[in-house]
Write a structure and sequence with these properties.
Layout: H1 2-11, E1 13-16, H2 22-39, E2 47-48, E3 57-61, H3 67-83, E4 87-98, E5 103-106, E6 114-122, E7 128-133, E8 153-158, E9 163-166, E10 173-175, E11 183-193, H4 205-211, H5 217-220
Antiparallel strand pairs: 1-9, 2-3, 3-4, 4-11, 5-10, 6-9, 6-11, 7-8, 7-10
């Protein structure tokens, strides 16, 4: 853990290879698909496209699919140990990328002080790189770019079950190379320092309150 923490503090990110066994990742993805089908919603119901992506993607948030909170809350002690600080969870979501997509270089909102990219599955089992700037930038930098410009950065070729922990607010990040797989499935999980400047973002209460009015039919029935 000490080596992880030192790398994380020095570079703004650290790779956590084999964070979960591949069968667990694949089983969770299959269960998510089955749960959505049983609720009457397909993955296509959650199609979205934003400025970070070239193509439409599937995005499902924890307020729409609560089992995502199991990963977020359950991983909190492990991620806190790697980060070297006491953490509280904020939010989590699932994204399914298409072939040829990228994630443009960007910084995250304040709820993403400490973030984890976790790969669930690849259609063709081809690793796809996640890149993080090793230099800090100002918080809330709204710029979105195709590359890192003059910033130094590192890349991790992620396989299913691998995680990359990164400082999402101050270290810009993205996926520069087009997705080589027909599709790829990922989780993104976020935390804040329990005693830090963004502690009011814990549990993402404003977003939860706003979005709980919608979501899948099975969620509204709870």
């Amino acid at each position: 853990m000490v080596v992880e923490t030192e790398a994380y503090r020095a570079n703004g990110y650290v790779c956590l290879p084999g964070l979960f066994p591949v069968p667990v990742m694949h089983a969770f993805y299959r269960r998510m698909q089955a749960d959505l089908q049983a609720s009457g919603d397909s993955l296509a119901t959650f199609a979205a496209r934003g400025p970070l992506l070239r193509h439409e993607a599937i995005e499902i948030y924890a307020y729409q699919y609560p089992p995502l909170l199991g990963f977020l809350w359950g991983l909190t002690p492990r991620i806190a140990a790697a980060a070297g600080v006491d953490l509280l969870p904020t939010y989590a979501y699932f994204r399914l990328y298409q072939h040829g997509d990228v994630c443009r270089v960007h910084s995250d909102r304040l709820a993403c002080e400490h973030s984890l990219s976790l790969t669930l599955a690849y259609a063709d089992d081809l690793p796809w790189e996640f890149s993080v700037a090793t230099e800090q930038t100002d918080a809330l930098d709204p710029a979105i770019a195709e590359d890192f410009g003059a910033l130094s950065f590192g890349s991790v070729a992620m396989r299913a079950g691998d995680g990359v922990l990164y400082q999402g607010i101050r270290h810009r990040h993205g996926r520069l190379r087009a997705n080589p797989n027909a599709w790829s499935a990922h989780l993104f999980l976020h935390w804040v320092d329990r005693d830090g400047p963004y502690k009011e973002q814990a549990f993402d209460q404003p977003t939860v309150a706003h979005n709980s009015r919608g979501g899948a039919a099975w969620l509204r029935a709870i």
